[in-house]
Amino acid sequence: MASAASVFLLNVTGQIESAEFPEFDDLYCKYCFVYGHDWAPTSGVEEGISQIASRNRSIKKSVVWNFPIEITFKSTNPFGWPQIVVSVYGPDVFGNDVVRGYGAVHLPFTPGRHKKTIPMFVPESSSRLQKFTSWLTGRRPEFTDPKVVAQGDGREVTRVRSQGFLTLSFNVATKDLKKLGYTSSSSDLPNSEITFNP
Q: Residue 161: which of 100, 106, 89 has the closest Cα?
């Protein structure tokens, strides 16, 4: 007789497809995952950095990376469901690499293919003097650890500005969620969430 499952698995493959930053060109992106204490990666890559891509000269003028992501997590608890944090960088007028946008999104809860477009933002200087100094020195405000984007602590005092959009696609597979008493709602519902079956 097979023993009951003690963990469930979440497998995600996909890609960081493209971004729209109308004012900027020659961009690259970095990604990492943020997840709860009960989660552990079992295979795949937890962080990566893409190639530099130039804007497509078509009507949309988007930067296309098609940069692959693949990871498998195990957990006993859906609390702390993994998020992917993406940071986009590019050169400023002095040729220094500066952050062009941060964004984060939870990995989809339901199995199947998903596409997400996330708004990106950048931190802003809190005063005109700091803004001028950062422009003069070429050192713009940025987070020392991009994972802060996916966490709530300390974010309430950060001044940010919206800037651009990034598109990701995911292929999601889960294993043993039902054996642990969890079911995921239908993927065609707009607000998919994990529920517990008593």
A: 100
